[in-house]
């Protein structure tokens, strides 16, 4: 691929699509699934009977609400900073617990999407009118760097939903290192990690019978069609999930069932697919304690506590620097 071609492109989306679809084997970054339609599909996935992750984390937070709130709290006040606004349902359990305990805190959700933040704020304030909430729009680490004014106040950072699982180990370490850099001695990180389990349970979670996960992945191609003026015949692609119990990596692919030539006008690019050629779209890493301890160690973090659900499908870890 010509370097000049990449340079002339404006957005990261354009550059990444060009790079991924010009590579062999082809790949796309799952972060681009999340436009308005992708966000909605993910909300639906979280309600699918096969997608256990959200319910497990909700169970953990609900069961351990009191203990978590007491670990997080600080007499002199603290900031509860969430990376990713989400739909707020699990966070609401923590916020309710803290308000009930009369804790002195401010909730600072960080998200790239202003729309998600406004929506979250409106919903939370309706149900929890006493909540101090200061939404922060921007990318996580830029915002965390800006947060200098909170330097002498305890920070509790929340990363829920096993979002780290969508990063390979190298990127996950980088992500944790960036969080670690923003932390001080007294600060805590509360993070969810989906665990290794019966491979069939994992495969089912990413291959729901209603086909919502398939639609979710295919949204990548719909988005390229819409935003980059392309002509993917999306119906010819089949969603294909794999899980490797040795590495704990679930991978999703879109497999082209027939030969196809795609023109992506905005990139001035023609992409040829042979029959059964794939696009790798997402990884959803599953963990065990040893792997989480290894990641933490690499990032300069220490595990101080863990909480799991009844079936031990999912774990939330508390880290300190
Ligand atoms: C957001 N993330 C943690 C989800 C996961 O489980 O990897 C995204 C997802 N992909 C398919 N289903 C859900």
From TrEMBL:
This is L-histidine N(Alpha)-methyltransferase. InterPro entries: EgtD, EgtD_Methyltrsf_superfamily, MeTrfase_dom, MeTrfase_EgtD-like, SAM-dependent_MTases_sf. GO terms for molecular function: L-histidine N(alpha)-methyltransferase activity. Residues 13-320 form the Histidine-specific methyltransferase SAM-dependent domain. Keywords: Methyltransferase, Transferase. Its EC number is 2.1.1.44. The keyword Transferase applies. Signal peptide: none annotated. GO terms for biological process: methylation. SUPFAM superfamilies: S-adenosyl-L-methionine-dependent methyltransferases (SSF53335). It is an enzyme of class 2 (transferase). It comes from Mesonia sediminis. The keyword Methyltransferase applies. Pfam families: Methyltransf_33 (PF10017).
